[in-house]
Design goal:
The complex is a heterodimer of chains A (302) and B (382). With 302 residues, chain A is of the alpha/beta class. Chain A has helices spanning 40-48, 67-70, 88-98, 103-116, 132-144, 162-177, 189-195, 213-220, 257-271, 284-301; strands at 2-11, 14-24, 29-33, 55-60, 63-64, 73-76, 150-153, 182-186, 198-203, 206-211, 224-229, 243-248, 251-255, 274-280. Helix content of chain A is 38%, strand content 27%. In chain A, helix 3 packs across helix 4. The radius of gyration of chain A is 24 Å and the shape is elongated. Residues 296-302 of chain A have low confidence and may be disordered. Chain B is mostly helical and 382 residues long. Helix content of chain B is 63%, strand content 6%. Chain B is built from 13 helices and 4 strands. The chains are: A alpha/beta (302), B mainly alpha (382). The interface between A and B is large, with 59 and 42 residues.
Chain lengths: 302, 382
Amino acid sequence: MLQVQGVDRFFGDHQVLTDVTFNVERGKLTGFVGGNGAGKTTTMRIILGVLGAHGGTVSLDGQVLDGRARRSFGYMPEERGLYPKMKAAEQLAYLARLHGYDRGEANDRARALLERLGLGERADDTLESLSLGNQQRVQIGAALVHDPQVLILDEPFSGLDPMAVEVVLGVLTEHAERGVPVLFSSHQLDVVERLSDRLVIIAGGQIRANGTAEQLRERHGVRRHQIVTAHDAGWVRQVPGVRLVELDGATAVFEGGDQVAQQVLARAIQQDTVLSFGPVHASLSEIFKDIVIDEEPQEEAA
Amino acid sequence: MSTLTTDRTRPPQTTAGPPREAAPVPTGQAALLVAEREITTQVRAKSFIVSLIITLALVVVGIVAGGYFADRVGSPTPVATVAGAGVELEAVEGFEVTTATDMEAAVDLVRDEEVDAAIVPDETAPTGLRVIALSDPPGDVLQALSVQPEVELLDTSTSRGLQVLISAVFGFLFMMFALGSGAMIVQNTVQEKQSRIVEILLSAVPPRALLAGKVLGNTAVAVGQMAVIGAVAVLTLMLTGQDDLLDLLTGPIAWFVVFFLFGFVLVAALFAAGASLVSRQEDTGVVMMPTMMLVMAPYFVVIFLGENALAMSIASYVPFSAPVAMPVRLFMGDAAWWEPILSLGVLALTAAAVIAVAARIYSGSLLRTGPRVSLREALQGF
């Protein structure tokens, strides 16, 4: 398990990370979500050791990371960068050799990986001649070619078409299933919700929420109910304590807690036919929006 | 959107061969890998090959043209003799001798301007010879036939003209290669920084290895180019029969190559460290300026102060001008045997010190982006 514990980081006088603490479990894809400037990239660079922390530790299975342990990490930086004039297979083989594979093995690994990423036929093309999406796949390959023990990927899915997302997700899942902790960031919550097993939400340099999607909904989502009746449900808003979220003819979604919901149900049975009634969960995007917006004023005050 | 559904039940597959952990690469080996990449990518670039071919063509044309014009100045004078004249002009350089059957035939050759002069026996003359020419007395023929006293020259050191030429060639080669490769190092370093591949590289190897590999690779490319150009130059000189110049140059050239190697490492480290301070190609000018001045200095020193023995002595010990000034002094026979060794020692120590500092700057600034990193910040690390 990769553990980030109480990490602080300043740029000049400006504190960009405050007590950042979360775990990346083995065998799981952990999504790291936050808006622009929330601190995702800074946190990832600190995990990788390309940036120093001003407080806190990063450890793997209880061992605080040093340069040597980090050599076995796979990293995809936020800004895509490989050598534009080098061939795709050559770049990956070069990186594999830097990680200690001999020439022959490095070549085999590079080609096998490109094949797996759906770029087998473009392996001998220079990077600059590939489309942006394909360059991105090579970039992901660069993070994977040395069979990393930990995977840190900054926005791996941005700019990929749905098919490529599927391929990349497959490859990442394989690595996770082999017990590699995988952390990937995204500013698109729906992507992370769909693709990851666990979520870590960061805003303003602080971890706001952390857990599976289900846990986050339970912990942070406001409980809502939906009722569908035979006739117009406009009367729901007159029930004391109800805050109507959505009304569409005979369907109403409202907030107000279990007590209020019971009253709405009782009245509906009394005056109409109830076709359906039950709780609905707010989507993660809504929770995310709430969490981030709630905390915004604090951030400005800080 | 069915293609988007996640299939987590997919059986595990290995992406690339068996999961075998590779041993971490030692710094030295990593540096060699980096150097190898620098070399192969540069040598394979079309622009590199084209510019090398153009340089080689210029060298060959220059040498051939030089030889041709030298020949023109001393082209042999055609003369005619009569069989039995007893004149051994063949032994004297600079004459093309035609043997005529009799005196009349020899005179006809002069009339037809086939030859500049005819040398025929004349028993009435004190020398036993008569020179027949068309309208002007042929000076070179007369000179060759006259008896000259032995001449002894007290100052046998090489001429000033040749010194200027050799200085200019050494100085120019050093400047050209140092600036060319320097620009390449700067461009590569900033490109790696700008594209952030440096983050991936540094997650695999330490910054020291990256710097060492870059310096090593570019030095190898420059020295390799020098060797090719040198070999072509020597070959052309030999094929055009100008190999007498080679004997004079062998020693100084050997020293020049050794000095060039160390001097180049020094300059390359400076360029790499300077480049690591900036993040964008547009900003490179400011940090490159001081190094470029240092690289151009020896050229102007040997050209303008070449006659000043003291200045040349000092220049031959200053690490930046030594690679040019010391071989020139050796060529002129001005330096004692131990001087190049001492100067080389100074150069090597300076290079080692500069590399140590450069590695520090490189490590401290490579991951910084945005505005230019100040030297002090870079040395303090991040």
